[in-house]
Write a structure and sequence with these properties.
With 177 residues, this protein is an alpha+beta fold. Helix content is 18%, strand content 25%. The protein is built from three helices and twelve strands. It has a five-stranded mixed β-sheet with strand order 9-8-12-10-11, sandwiched between helices. Strands 5-6-7 form a three-stranded antiparallel β-sheet, covered by helices on one side. A two-stranded antiparallel ribbon has the order 1-2. Helix 2 links the parallel strand 10 and strand 11. The longest helix is centred in the last third of the chain and has 13 residues. It is globular and about 50 Å long.
Length: 177
C-alpha cells in the first residue's frame, strides 16, 4: 500500500463487484479488497490467537524425558549422566559408549522385564545407526519391537508412546557436541 501524497491515505487495490445469488435474486456486493499479491498480514490476520499445548505427565509414576544434551538427559526432573535405560518405573545407567557397543547382552534386560515391554525405542546419538540384524530378529522373537532413531527423535517418540499408555522402554545414547 502506498500513501496518497496530499491526504496521507493508503491506496488499496480493489476488485470488481461480485454478484452473489440469494435465493432467486442476484445481489451485487460493494467493492472488496483484493488480497492477491499481498506479502504482509492485514487486518484480522495480525490479531489471531496463538495456542500452545504443554505436554505434561498424567501421573507421577510416568517417566517423561524433559531434555537431552551431550552430557545426558533430564528425566522427571532428575539429571542422568551418560547413556541410560528408561523403564516404565525406573531409570538405569546403560553400559554402552556408542552404537557399536549395542549387543544382545546390552539389550537383554528389555526382554526380561515384567510387565513385558511392547516397544523399545533406541536412541543411537546424533544420527540413526544400523544394528546387527540378528539383534533385531532376536528381540522380535522375544516379542519386543525395536524402533531405532537418532536420540532427539527417540526422546520424542518415547514421550509420545508413554503418553498413549503403551508399555515402552527407551535405551538412549547422548548426542555429541
Amino acid at each position: 500500500m502506498a500513501p496518497l501524497a496530499p491526504l496521507g491515505l493508503p491506496l488499496m487495490r480493489l476488485s470488481a463487484p461480485r454478484l452473489v445469488k440469494y435465493g432467486s435474486a442476484m445481489a451485487a456486493h460493494a467493492w472488496q479488497q483484493s488480497r492477491s499479491h499481498r506479502l504482509q498480514p492485514t487486518g484480522d490476520e495480525l490479531y489471531e490467537k496463538t495456542t500452545v499445548t504443554r505436554i505434561e505427565r498424567d501421573s507421577a509414576d510416568m517417566m517423561f524425558i524433559e531434555s537431552y544434551s551431550s552430557l545426558g538427559f533430564i528425566i522427571n526432573g532428575d539429571r542422568i549422566v551418560g547413556p541410560c535405560a528408561v523403564l516404565p518405573r525406573s531409570i538405569l545407567q546403560w553400559n554402552v559408549a556408542s552404537h557399536r557397543d549395542i549387543s544382545l547382552e546390552s539389550l537383554s534386560l528389555f526382554h526380561l522385564l515384567v510387565p513385558k515391554i511392547e516397544i523399545l525405542v533406541l536412541g543411537t546419538g546424533d544420527q540413526v545407526e544400523r544394528l546387527d540384524p540378528a539383534i533385531a530378529k532376536f528381540m522380535r522373537q522375544k516379542g519386543v519391537a525395536i524402533e531405532i532413531q537418532d536420540t532427539p527423535n527417540a526422546c520424542a517418540t518415547y514421550n509420545f508412546l508413554t503418553s498413549e499408555r503403551r508399555v515402552t522402554a527407551a535405551a538412549l545414547i547422548p548426542v555429541s557436541d
